[in-house]
Amino acid sequence: MLGNHLPSSDPTVRRDLTVLYDGKRKPNKGARVDDVASTITSDSLTILHKKIFIPNDVVTMVPKRSDRAGLSPPRYITVYEISLRARLCFPPPAKLIEISKKCEVSLSQILHRAMSVTVGLIVLFRDRGAILTPEYLSLMGRLTSDTQGRVTFRSKWLDIRTRDPAKSWSSAFFLVRNDWAYLRSGGR
């Protein structure tokens, strides 16, 4: 029993992670981004509803201990809290997708700070009547990746030595009902 959570009945969660390598399967190298349990609780989801505008028509659900980000229940999609904190709306801005394609990076690899900076620059350029291109972004800084594949933004002028406050961003996810009829009717 972990804390106040009951042990999971899902056999994939309860498997012994210390089993010796038998040469047939790959050894466990730690949890992948889409293979961790969610740390979102009903209280934190309520707080998230208050901080970030989520319409009342959108059905959200706190994942069970056995739910994983990569295997959401039928008719639900996975939403990371960090994406909402970075003001990433859905669908993502076309410029952000263009920049990520040019840099050969998927959106799920980009850390909170890099996402905040990039989306902030896109909004700043749009407010000023300009268009942020990958070339302009490369003049201001560059997207770099570490050994684990996470991507951050390194500025050419500012040396900001801060650590991402959400170290375990991959475990802070919740589920949203995939209701495309609502989105087509004008919901945001």
From TrEMBL:
Official protein name in the record: Uncharacterized protein
Native source organism of the sequence: Dendrobium chrysotoxum
